[in-house]
User: Fold this.
Amino acid sequence: LTEELFHSAKLASVGQLAAGVAHQINNPLSAISGRTQMRLGGAPPDEGFLREQLGKIRADCARIAETVHDLLGFARKQRTVKQAVDVHAVLDGTIDMEAHEALKHKVAVERRYGTGIPLLVARESHLRQLFANLMANAFDAMAGGGTLTITTRARPLGVEIAFADTGAGIRPEDLAHLFEPFFTTKPPGQGTGLGLAVAKRIVELHGGTLDVVTTVGVGTTFTVWLPAGPL
Assistant:
């Protein structure tokens, strides 16, 4: 039984990452497809515009390669390579990447960034995935639209990033299972139940914490604390 549980946990771990990065891979693929269709369907572009689009396609391909590399790294338990990261730059990039989803869900995203925020010691691609997962969870919680407020604050030895939505909130009976792999309150076929499990795992890999405060009918706030300091 112990061996079966070990293998189940290992498979679940790989599955968590695979589902979590699927969305991150889909976005650059969609961008590549859109730019290619625009090039094929329009008039011949001038050289400057063509170079610009090819540069963006190359960047999108690099993002896909990086994501796949991270997937292999998680599966093989490789050491997470970290560097100094500007959390606001990563947040801004993720918000831009998720802009279409925010529009589709009729959600306004407000940025309330603090001052004096230190650099994080993290893997940038992991942070993008973490923030994207928390944003996607917030969008799903606001079925009729709403506001997602992202706040950053400098804290002792690190940075606090809060994602506060005006959604339905989380029922007490669901709260205890929130970060369990494959747990979801969505109807069958509408959710894998892996987004928050992946988010928590990324936070833990970076030596941080992920907390949640929720009120049914009012909204939910997920607060991430991540360490800052020398590499």
